[in-house]
UniProtKB/TrEMBL annotation:
Belongs to the ABC transporter superfamily. It comes from Shinella kummerowiae. This is Cell division ATP-binding protein FtsE. One of its GO terms (biological process) is amino acid transport. GO terms for cellular component: plasma membrane.
Length: 344
């Protein structure tokens, strides 16, 4: 649906340019929900603004549904923006217009007559759960309701692609969940492709099927959310995800951790469960297998992009006999393991 091919974006003048995006290659699959994550200033907003032509690439191509955005004139850009809806962190509603009239605005601009506008806006109000708020002004709506108006407005011209710029960042956790559920519903029911940028990892974990990680203007990792979140390869991804996925070791454990064992030490192992292994009673089997001498130190089971994923940190004696038995068990069950170190 969207491809970035060698996209570079420089701000400032030629003598003193600032490179905000540096050779970005990326694909946003049709019908997918794709999240872009990265630190502040990494280039997320720049990336998304290239898609609807609010910014122009300095080098490379941004192609949206077969059309190269950089080649479009003003008329072409207006057409593109009917195909590409956008929602914002602060909703960007007109305070002097009711919910109905805010949603109607893009249709008025596109020249629809009042009857056609009504035929479009009324079902959209229902779709976003605001059938009874048609005549309310933004000041009379909650943050979540305002974002629902923003979503309905973005959908008014029946776009194929929805861009979301930190759309839930100003909302409380419960409202965030309801807006994410609405976006998921729209994606499933209307087949709308969604590209979202966020600094909230939970958002991506909850709704994005795919994710790209941007760092200093470069895409350092991209792929299915489950794969990236459960096995991040780039340091930036690990840091971004550290408080969201998996178990962080308690401070007392981390400080006492040694790289090599001394006599009598215990080995600390992180077990990772996903797919079929998430549903099997493997921990109980491990305890039986290595003779009961296992401590469970930390653990969590969560859902990533709709799939279960669990981690468990265990410790047991680092003796040759126990280690061999544990390794045989891991090989037989296909459990994924990582040795974290040794403790006295
Ligand atoms: N119009 C501009 N002129 C000059 N520099 C800019 C301009 N817009 C953005 N930048 C710079 O480009 C870099 C990327 O900015 P961008 O807004 O894309 O980052 P971001 O990842 O969206 O950050 P945040 O999460 O803080 O919004 C930043 O260093 C920013 O200062």
């Amino acid at each position: 649906m969207v491809t970035f091919e060698g996209v570079t974006k420089r701000y400032g003048d030629a003598a003193n340019p600032f490179v905000a995006l540096d050779g970005v290659d990326m694909t946003v699959g049709r019908g997918a929900i794709t999240g872009i994550i990265g630190r502040s200033g990494a280039g997320k907003s720049t990336l998304i603004r290239l898609v609807n032509g609010l910014e122009k690439a300095s080098d490379g191509r941004v192609v949206v549904d077969g059309t190269e955005v950089g080649q479009l004139n003003e008329t072409g850009l207006r057409g593109l923006r009917r195909e590409v809806g956008m929602i914002f962190q602060h909703f960007n509603l007109l305070s002097s217009r009711t919910a109905f009239d805010n949603i109607a605005l893009p249709l008025e601009i596109a020249g629809f007559d009042p009857a056609a506008i009504k035929a479009k806006v009324v079902p959209l109000l229902d779709l976003v759960g605001l059938g009874d708020k048609s005549a309310s002004y933004p000041s009379e709506l909650s943050g979540g309701q305002k974002q629902r108006v923003g979503i309905a407005r973005a959908l008014a011209t029946s776009p194929k692609l929805l861009l979301s710029d930190e759309a839930t960042s100003a909302l409380d956790p419960e409202t965030t969940q309801s807006i994410l559920a609405l976006l998921k519903q729209i994606n499933a029911e209307l087949g709308l492709t969604v590209l979202l940028i966020t600094h909230e990892m939970e958002v991506v974990k909850t709704i994005a099927s795919h994710v790209a990680v941007i760092d200093k203007g470069r895409i350092v990792e991209q792929g299915p959310t489950f794969d990236i979140f459960t096995a991040p390869r780039h340091e930036t991804t690990r840091i971004l995800l550290s408080s969201t996925v998996g178990t962080n070791l308690p401070e007392w454990l981390r400080t006492g951790l040694k790289a090599a064992p001394s006599a009598g030490d215990r080995i600390l192992v992180r077990l990772t469960f996903f797919g079929a292994t998430a549903f099997q009673p493997l921990t109980a089997q491990l305890v039986t297998e290595i003779g009961g001498n296992v401590n469970i130190l930390a653990g969590a089971i969560e859902e990533i992009a709709g799939e279960p994923f669990g981690t468990l940190v265990v410790a047991y004696p680092a003796t040759p006999d126990v280690l061999a038995r544990a390794d045989r068990f891991y090989a037989a069950t296909g459990l994924s393991t990582e040795v974290l170190g040794y403790v006295a």
